[in-house]
User: Fold Phosphoribosylaminoimidazole-succinocarboxamide synthase from Tissierella simiarum.
Amino acid sequence: MNLVYKGKTKDVYAMENGNYLLKFKDDVTGENGVFDPGANTVGLTIEGVGKAGLSLTKFFFEKLNSMGIPTHYVSANINDATMIVKPATMFGNGVEVICRYRAVGSFLRRYGMYAEEGQPLDAFVEITLKDDERQDPPITEDALDMLGILSKDEYRILKDLTKKIGNVVKEELAKKGMELYDIKFEFGRIGEDKHIALIDEISGGNMRAYKDGKYIEPLELERLMLED
Amino acid sequence: MNLVYKGKTKDVYAMENGNYLLKFKDDVTGENGVFDPGANTVGLTIEGVGKAGLSLTKFFFEKLNSMGIPTHYVSANINDATMIVKPATMFGNGVEVICRYRAVGSFLRRYGMYAEEGQPLDAFVEITLKDDERQDPPITEDALDMLGILSKDEYRILKDLTKKIGNVVKEELAKKGMELYDIKFEFGRIGEDKHIALIDEISGGNMRAYKDGKYIEPLELERLMLED
Assistant:
């Protein structure tokens, strides 16, 4: 098994059967020691973050697979903090797909002239390029198509899947008394038919959630979601 | 006639018959004394810029009107550096529509991971919000619709008009041996039927053009375009 990529929060190993093994680490993104799911740097290390993130990812990916929503998920081993996934090809060098239910974060920084903080948004989907050097710029359907990153047909499927998956996460959080504000996903093309599937993870570090008007930290979110 | 708005490059007066009179000034946008059509500040003042910009605007708006492409233009008086226009309502607090034929400027700053400097683009249309405080953020069709700035139907018309007008400008510049790299437009809703029409101006300050591989300054561009 060969290490093929060292990520900010996960390492990736190639398996002999063609699948990949993701090793979840205890690092979370942020700046100056403060967690920020949209940040491009590792902000802090918290004991147990890897296993907690994987546990929530396992919960959601198994749920999505059972609903027939395509993901790269094969299996997970919580004790080892590892997840086995199918190989996927990225869109260009990677895009992030954001689903928003409340106007916060980068949405508000861009569109604050027209939106108030916390204003409800109806599963609004945005795409940004994974490009640390250029601060993950937002990109339109037309630009994605023109630059050969994502076809118009793929864009439609991606947007539809994003809303579906966002709504699944939102409903599950609501069962635990939390409100999902926004969540970011990654997608890839899987299999010979190159169908679009959810990849990466769905953990506390990918979303912003509030309970009784108070922001819930990723580790606390995962604890609340996974307790009986 | 009342002054109703002092702009960066034009002042706007309300006329008694409901039309508006635009007074073109000798200020151009830029930073630190260097012209930049995408800048939000007045960078420098050049004698004659107002009349030259109006002359080119008159040329293009009369051409567009004769082609049946809707604009706000009524008439122009070059000696006074004034133009009479029909009243128009803006989209939100104003948007800028950019038509790109080569990858330069903010396009390259955002999408440089996928595009090379000067790479041909096929009349690629982008929309940015007029919001100095937030550095004129780019915005998608979905966000424009959701925030009530522009409906999906209006977006389609706007994009179509932008390509048509961009191509008219590109062809006219080509007749003088210049190549249009990009151009920005403003549109508004005019008349009782609120039809979408080109507003503002089409002058050297709105576009980037090259001749024999060399960038052409706005005043020089206007001189080349208007000479016999």
Remarks:
- The helical segments of chain B are 49-66, 105-111, 141-146, 152-175, 218-226.
- The two ends of chain B are 36 Å apart (CA to CA).
- Chain B has a mean pLDDT of 94.
